[in-house]
Fold these 2 entries.
Entry 1:
Amino acid sequence: MKSTQAPLPFPGRQSDSHKGDFGRVVLIGGSRGMAGSISLSSMAALHTGSGLVTAVVPDRCLETVAGFHPGIMTLPLPATPAGEFAQTTGGVPDMIESVVASNATVAKADAIGCGPGMGTGAGSVRIVRWLLEQTDRCRVFDADAINIIAQHRFLDRPPLPRRQASVVLTPHPGELARLTGVSPSDRPGQIEAAETLVRRHAFTIVLKGGPTEVLGPVDPSEEAGTCQRHTNTTGNPGMATAGSGDVLTGMMTSLLGQGLGPWDAARLAVYVHGLAGDLAAKAHSQPAMTCVELLGRIGDAIATTED
Ligand SMILES: NC(=O)C1=CN([C@@H]2O[C@H](COP(=O)(O)OP(=O)(O)OC[C@H]3O[C@@H](n4cnc5c(N)ncnc54)[C@H](O)[C@@H]3O)[C@@H](O)[C@H]2O)[C@@H](O)CC1
Ligand SMILES: Nc1ncnc2c1ncn2[C@@H]1O[C@H](COP(=O)(O)OP(=O)(O)O)[C@@H](O)[C@H]1O
Ligand SMILES: [Mg+2]
């Protein structure tokens, strides 16, 4: 295992602190058949230190998601027969995004992560479009949320006001290819395409892989788009296993919810996530480690990076 240094220390805790000090986060996603993904994100957010974690899921997945960890709260939304988010609720308010917007837990969330396992159906599209417009919120878009943004060309619209755009996208190379048209086999081209997105929208982009690259604006309020790049130093091919990225989504959302800015949250999340992967591989081997062992090593990884 390489010996490397964290880009910044993990935030410490005061002796009189309480769970409200560590962020309320919401994770939106899951569907019947992919309930594990949003559960992994939610458990990762808890293990990264979030005070309160709510998974917003299609109602057909509620028991499954809630059953993974007693610390996860769940908010069920109407589902299609296939078990994805429905477009309408048949009630008042009627459209699914109105239900999300009017929910008190969602309204109070310090950070919202969206996408793992949610599918790309009409209900999910409405939720992603709504979330992209919430410019006063910290948001993480991953997996199907990125696929939806790509399919519906949501980034072709005029950029959001820079000052408010606290958005992190966490594509793997296949998702970035859908977003930009640049092939996963062209790593330099993908990094350049991600830089272009950063300069235009002032988003932070985490281009996953071995190694993961973090790209973000130097000054998000500046009109002329700037971009800085950080190459992560942790992680290993044992992490090429289902659910590794879902864990990262929860960690990223957790750190944003704890008050870190997007550049710091992204660099620290990928560092601790990769280190947890390195510790899991050391204990279990690269082939045998899974997302469960990765999740189980977040604590050991944090312990080496604490303030
Ligand atoms: N337990 C669960 O419920 C899980 C659900 N998942 C969900 O499944 C859905 C589909 O996501 P997937 O990522 O599996 O499928 P995708 O079709 O998005 O990605 C797989 C494809 O992307 C490309 N790709 C990915 N990483 C690459 C790399 N490093 N280099 C080059 N090409 C690369 C490859 O072409 C690969 O076939 C998402 O909603 C996701 O959240 C997955 O996260 C796995 C676990
Ligand atoms: N060869 C590798 N070296 C280092 N990290 C890797 C490697 N392969 C995958 N990973 C990491 O594992 C995660 C995979 O994410 P993703 O493809 O979204 O998985 P999933 O959608 O199955 O959860 C990313 O954080 C990525 O950086
Ligand atoms: Mg993924």
Entry 2:
Amino acid sequence: MSRFRNFIPSEHFPAEADRYVLYYNACCPWAHRTIIAHAMKGLGEVVQLVEADARDPAHGWWFSGRRGPERDPIYGIKYVRDLYMRADPQYNGRVTVPLLWDKKNQTIVSNESSEIVRMFFEGFDQLLPLEMREVNKLNPLIPQYLRADIDEVNGWVYDTVNNGVYKVGFARSQAAYDDAITKLFSSLDRLEAHLADPRHQPYLFGEHITEADIRLFTTLIRFDMVYYTLFKCNVKMIRLDYPRLHDWLRRLYWDEGPETSGGVFKLTTNFPASGYAQVSAGNGIVPAGPLPHILPL
Ligand SMILES: N[C@@H](CCC(=O)N[C@@H](CS)C(=O)NCC(=O)O)C(=O)O
């Protein structure tokens, strides 16, 4: 459960340019959704991005200079943990990314990716050109008439797919693994059937990309390469067993047109399997396949 759950705009956290910083790591699927939202909304000049490197076994996320800067550009610190301690010296929860930081109040706005995504969709609109504001768009990321449907799909996709791959990969008993893997693949089957409906093509809710696509994408783009091999989600592969999901995934990934704001899905997908190999298997051995990692359309 994420601990910091404030919203922008609100009394203490108004929408302001050059005030907030998003700390992320490109490997992390939860951070990836916030990066896609940031890019699709054109927030480059409004919310600063800082990447933290993979977990140091002793200190967690850190500023290594290999991936992201050598030191945090705001405070010069070395570890994301220090930001959590600055926000709350008593903090003893998990140190996770993504993290939305407020430079003015020197505190964490939120460490819950689903809520950061929603803030990025609408929270900064008054600072953006008119045509980028959700109310003015022909294709808002959460159209009002689809809101309940999107929430419903997000709900089971979160539980059984986004979080599901972690439940499988980190299961501590055979029973827990069996339960999570059954739910994961029945949800993938359900998504494959969902895409068979002409109202759900080419994207999950029709002609335009919505939040539901973004949230599913960041898990499925890692599926064959990372979750199938390293997290033991190995009943079926997207590329071999789910033709509609595979088309949907590759369309999002390879598109460079206006629907993807010039290709944000590909541009933001950047993750080495070695990061996951360390976390899941503990020995850092990277599986060779499948190759290529992402098939052409
Ligand atoms: N609920 C959080 C989860 C974020 C999360 O679990 N991030 C992982 C990286 S993929 C993390 O930072 N893990 C570090 C840890 O648990 O120590 C969100 O969606 O923002």
